[in-house]
Amino acid sequence: MAFIIAALFSLAVQLPAQLGASELVRNGDFSKWSEGSAAGWKLASSGKASIHYDVNEKPEGAKGSLRIDIEGSGAGEGQVVASKFKVQPNSILFLEGWMKAQKGFIQIKLYKGGKEYQRISVNSGQRGEWTKLEKELDVGDADALAVLLRYNQGSGYVGKSLWFADISVIPAAERIRSAPTIAKLEGVATFSSIGIYADIIGDMSQFTKGYSVFRKKGEQEWRASLPMQWQDKTKQLRSSLLNLEEDTEYEIKTWMEDPNLTEKMEPAFMTVKTWSSEVPIARTVYLPAGEITEPLLITESGSAEGWVRYTGDPSGTTVLNVGMNGANAVKFEAVHHVILDNLTIRGGVKDAVTLRSSTDVRIMRCDISEWGRPGELLPSTNPKWGRGPFYLDENGERINLEGGVRIGRYSSRIVVEDCYIHNPRGRATSWKNGHPLGPTSIILFNSDGNLVIRNNSLIGGEEHRFNDTIEGAYNNYITGGPHRDTDFDGNTMFFSNDDGVELDGGQMNVRFFNNWIQSSYCGVSTAPTILGPSYIYNNLIVLEGEERGQTNFAFKVGGNKVEEPGINYFFHNTIFSNSMALRGGNWGKGPTPLFTRNNLFASGVLLWPQKSKADFDYDMARPNSIDPPLPEWQQNGVTGLESFRDRAAGDYRLSDGSLAIDRALALPMISEEYQGSAPDIGAFQVGASPLFPVREDSVSALPMQLQIEKTLATSNEKADTLYITAPSSTGKRWRILSDEAWLQFSPSNGPCDGKVHEVTVSLKPDFKREGLRQGSITVRTDFGYNRTSFVKAKVRLADPGIQMFVAADLEQRGMTVVESDPNAPVVPYLAAPATRAASSEAYIKFDFEIEEAGVYYLHGLMSVPGPGSPGHDSCFVQVDDGEPGYWDFPVTAPGRWEWMINSIQRKEYPRKMQLSAGKHTIYIRGRESLTRFAKFAVSRSSLPPQD
């Protein structure tokens, strides 16, 4: 079974074609000289240097070496360059050579079509003695290669020499080597996962594949796992076991195979036990009843045999309300085996709860809010900060990185579970001001990893948006973000102006699964994956816009800014994005390894401009949404439209007759068990509950998304019903909580009796702000268990004064009239010309008259085609004799026709048109090619027309 799975999951590798002799570097031993230079090599340095053949200074076994004498300093690095030679794309080559230098290295330049494609540096920590350098190279899409001998030519190196010897590049399959062996096998557990680490000694190769199988201790049959990832710079094979049972011992067998080796490679074995939710309590510290205004400093530790538990008074009236009386409401400093349980926590000038140098700490069922500083939104006072404005503190410094929970340095085995973290004092800026800055629910700040963040409601709001819902620091550190061996499971994550979660950093066996992200700019960021692997599976990501209505990527994938980045695995996710579903190259322009299976990209572009190191298959996507549409991608994928069971109610189960049913690939540990002939694509299998994320024996609240409305100056109102079920194991009573002042609900509480209870949710009678409001409503029990639903509220004007215009009926120049399109809401419609130059000359014009002066909005029923939809997603709008404003569309997913409100990029969303009574003219001026226009509407309402 393991052999079959590994074959399915291996990224495509081709053996190199024979290019004449196996040795590809000409005169790699530097023995041939012509006209004072080594044949096939050229000195190319801005400083002064000379090269010589040296038979006295050489490594053992070499005839001689190339000596470089640095005679004058120069800018940058000096170099001796070998003649460029052709390589077979996707081949694997092996570079070997010797170097003796204080500061030097060998560099490989890869070329594609004559242009530089990628640089790879090969160096060593040893200096001043002969050092052997080796590197296997996957050339990717490159078709040519050059070898460069690089050295520091700064003034401090003038008068010094360095040497290189026996430089060779051969097909890696011809490399003579001994079999690698597993020197150490280690497993790192959480409740439901185990990270596997195999340290390798010997001559490893990209042709060598690692495998692991596992079983519960005492069972006979081995179970297959996903393939192991090799990383040369750490000399380690890594992978994860997923969806395990907690408090269970597992036996694990790991081994390697290589088609180019005849030696037998012995397997290694280990036994690892997963964590238990139940731990022994040695002592419980009850905080006094009532309000506590002084910070709680936890300094007492427990042990594995007996933890120390802090909780509120049994009366349930304890509130730790620190306000601004301390930097933190709760601080863990150098403690271990401690539980903070079911406590209401308010305040903290910076973070509500912070941990440093602590291990084995569990923060459970806490209600955490009102931390951080609101600041004052002021213009930028530092040119290095960018545009601004920013929320500044009393010292004029930008406010950022303030969390409900901060897991800091030297901390590991930390659990945050079943918490309700919400309503910070401040709010994040948006991309309108530059990169967002502001509060976050959980900060992972250079910890030692091995964390679990599970079953939490992490809820911002329109007035208190997070920067990232879960934020990491710092992205370019291996220890940044979750670092390693970390699970994110069962979390609900609403309202961020940037990412739902930053996994950026080392990402060694980091797992993000069974989570729901909504109302963010991006979903999951894996930029960069410095080491890998990371596993992102069974998640629901709904990106309909941050505070400006803009979205970016559901999956923000890195690039090659770090050498040899690790791989990201994306399995069985359901994605609905107004813009991009996935994009690479967000940390370096080159590719990073990516592997996708069984994802439902119901809306959004799959953009992978690097064109390599990605393996897309068995996914479902909309027509023309894969960019570029390479033939090797999605050979077993599905192209089609998915409407879902009831998206308005947050029910993202597959619709009856969906093309995604029975079309997925069975994956070990993830989708081995299924109904029908095969698993279903996406996060929801046929027969699944509409309730998501899945939390065992917890509170249920349906629907996942509520829709309420009212019409001002009338009695028209639409409430919605929330159906709540709370088992007796979750507490005695539940109550409704919301940070939205415009919401009301009845009843506000009820018993935990396992029965279904109905709660009516509606807008408060005195709320009269026209437009769309978005918020949330949370059910929380007295034992601290929670469940949150999203809320959309539409407040309409009784008479919005809508004037509707069919685009094809309007005056226009340069547009194409499209007469037939089965997927269009209106035909004929207008499309911009096929080139950007022609589009800039095209326009649509319409005249209208209004009786009452005031603020008006422009709406357009529009669509952008794909592939290449980012090149068709904007136009200009000119009102009367005003300056044209740049209208960037908030919905750029190809093929979706949506009503979109006019905005001005980075200036105003939505754009308010202050119009006088009388006649007016609007021009829709072309900007990008092929943009489609069906209808326009001018209205006093910011809500789209109901047509």
UniProtKB/TrEMBL annotation:
N-terminal signal peptide: 1-17
Pfam family, one: Beta_helix
Naturally occurring in which organism (per UniProt): Thalassobacterium maritimum
Domain Right handed beta helix, chain residue ranges per copy: 332-525
Transmembrane stretches, start-end: none
Domain of life: Bacteria
Keyword Signal in annotation: yes
Keywords of the record: Signal
Protein name as annotated: Right-handed parallel beta-helix repeat-containing protein
Lineage: Bacteria, Pseudomonadati, Verrucomicrobiota, Opitutia, Puniceicoccales
InterPro entries referenced in this protein's UniProt entry, alphabetically: Beta_helix, PbH1, Pectin_lyas_fold, Pectin_lyase_fold/virulence
